[in-house]
Design goal:
By secondary structure, this protein is of the alpha/beta class. The chain has two domains: about 270 residues, Aldehyde Dehydrogenase, Chain A, domain 1 (3-Layer(aba) Sandwich); about 180 residues, Aldehyde Dehydrogenase, Chain A, domain 2, CATH 3.40.309. The chain has 17 helices and 23 strands. The strands form six sheets. The chain has a seven-stranded mixed β-sheet, with helices on both faces. Helix 16 links the parallel strand 19 and strand 20. Helix 2 packs antiparallel against helix 4, helix 3 crosses helix 4 and helix 3 runs antiparallel to helix 7.
Length: about 500
């Protein structure tokens, strides 16, 4: 097996270590003269530089994908399946190396990084079932001597624009189904943590994926806009904030592309008075502070119903001092830093605004020693109680280790709080009452619902997607809807008549 590039030492200088593009199965140095810093969030130092693509460099990646498409589309499903199995196995074998990239550039702790890779693997495993997933339908003798059947065909060159918080998993959400269906793929990952996407490209090459089927271009708005405008790109998948998701959707569709754009979230967890308080507190803490709250499915608001509020808030507060905050590569760390200093400071500002608008600060992450005495981008766990929907901290997606508690008198009020929120990504309800849980899943206007499960991310053979301002487009991501997104249907009506049996008939064709 070819020796694959390993994560480089943090001692390497930022001037010499560079993250290049990946085009036609090779690293390609940038020629635009533009680049951006990639930080180690745990130390606050610049670890490397990433090339920023020009319009011409994006065009080169798209050209490589366009040139590869005819042969890849014509590749048999059996051969594509064989390659997908190899990809899955190589990612599994090198999960530690991928996780190391995530820890050193995103900051998440090793166990969390490995969990991200594991969930990405589920999507690769789903894509190995492509022979079954691409099966069409056939109807015999719909009219005399006429059969009708439907087939699904790939779109061509498709693109993915992915966020910093899951630099390995979200690309796997996209490219696994895309290439299994016969498309070729251009990825624009986050410039904040770009190395995992190139490393994965090396694994795909080792698996036998042909040149040009998977390409990576790094960059900023220049690269994004060129992807949205490029005439040879048929579809774009995006995950990120709601304002950018709206821009991606509007610009991409205006240029004739199929677009799915997943936006922001404000995920609520309703806790009813009959819930197991210890279980609910454990779930709230786990879901709010994992990955420093930088998850689109993190629980950011607990809606405490009735007299459960005081004991629940106390139970949550009791758990917070036990969370170990530290560098992701340190043994025992449970929560790492945030992605940048600017983002850390913005998250911290919501604590001040929350208190000034009437919230109660039960835990202040700014009091953690690493917030004040480290060069890294650390913020301790924070808890805001007595939050109301009018407050700035509630209206905005904080995307950090801040859990808010909103108090409701009863179930109808709690439901109204969730349904009135602009976001509809994920939600959860904690209760012992099956009837109440069933009613909630019926009533709530949110795309993914957990019942005594705080982070209801669907397994790979379902599909991921929210409602309202959390999704722009009609089709959710990965799973069966991912196959639908990356293919289009074609219906064939066929007749093989005997010689001499045809005649001229100007009437509209009938099946009876």
């Amino acid at each position: 097996m070819t020796q694959l590039a390993q994560p480089t030492s943090e001692q390497a200088s930022a001037e010499t270590e560079r993250v290049n593009h990946w085009i036609a199965n090779a690293r390609v140095a940038g020629t635009s003269g533009r680049s951006g810093p990639v930080y180690n969030p745990a130390t606050g130092t610049i670890a490397r530089q990433v090339d920023f693509a020009s319009v011409e460099e994006v065009d080169a990646a798209v050209a490589a994908a366009r040139d590869a498409f005819p042969a890849w589309r014509a590749t048999s499903i059996s051969r594509r399946t064989e390659i997908m199995f190899r990809i899955r196995n190589l990612v599994e074998q090198h999960r530690e190396e991928i996780a190391a990239h995530l820890t050193r550039e995103h900051g998440k702790v090793r166990t969390d990084a490995l969990g991200e890779v594991a969930r990405g693997l589920e999507n690769l495993e789903f894509a190995t079932g492509i022979p079954h997933l691409l099966k069409g339908g056939f109807s015999e003798q719909v009219s005399s001597g006429i059969d009708v059947y439907q087939i699904r065909q790939p779109l061509g060159v498709v693109a993915g624009i992915t966020p910093f918080n899951f630099p390995a998993m979200v690309p796997m959400w996209m490219f696994a189904n895309a290439i299994a269906c016969g498309n070729t793929f251009v990825l624009k990952p986050s410039e904040k943590d770009p190395s995992a996407s190139v490393y994965i490209g090396e694994l795909l090459k080792e698996a036998g994926l042909p040149d040009g089927v998977y390409n990576v271009v790094h960059g900023d708005k220049v690269a994004v806009d060129r992807i949205l405008e490029h005439p040879d790109i048929a579809a774009v998948s995006f995950v990120g904030s709601t304002p950018i998701a709206r821009y991606i959707y509007e610009t991409g569709t205006k240029n004739g592309k199929r677009v799915q754009a997943l936006g922001g979230a404000k995920n609520h967890m309703i806790v009813l008075p009959d819930a197991d308080i210890e279980m609910a507190a454990d779930a709230a803490v786990s879901a709010a502070y994992g990955s420093a709250g930088e998850r689109c499915m993190a629980i950011s608001v607990v809606v405490a119903v009735g007299d459960v509020a005081d004991p629940l808030v106390d139970a949550i507060a009791e758990r917070l001092p036990k969370i170990k905050v530290g560098p992701g590569n340190e043994e025992g760390s449970e929560m790492g830093p945030l992605i940048t200093k600017e983002h850390r400071d913005k998250v911290a500002s919501y604590l001040e605004s929350g208190v000034s608008q009437g919230a109660t600060l039960r835990a202040d992450g700014r009091q953690h020693v690493l917030y004040s005495e480290s060069e890294g981008f650390f913020l301790g766990v924070s808890l805001l109680d007595n939050v109301t929907p009018e407050m700035e901290c509630y209206r905005n997606e904080i995307f950090g280790p801040v859990l808010e508690v909103v108090r409701a008198h009863d179930y109808p009020e709690a439901l109204g709080i969730v349904n009135d929120n602009q976001y509809g990504n994920g939600t959860a309800i904690f209760t012992r009452d099956g009837g109440a849980a069933r009613q909630y899943q019926f009533d709530v206007n949110v795309g993914m619902v957990g019942i005594n499960v705080p982070i209801p991310v669907p397994v790979a053979y379902y599909s991921f997607g929210g409602w309202k301002a959390s999704l722009f487009g009609d089709i959710h991501m990965y799973g069966p809807e991912g196959i639908q997104f990356y293919t289009r249907g074609k219906v064939v009506t066929a007749r093989w008549p005997d010689p001499g049996t045809s005649s001229v008939d100007l009437g509209f064709p009938r099946t009876r």
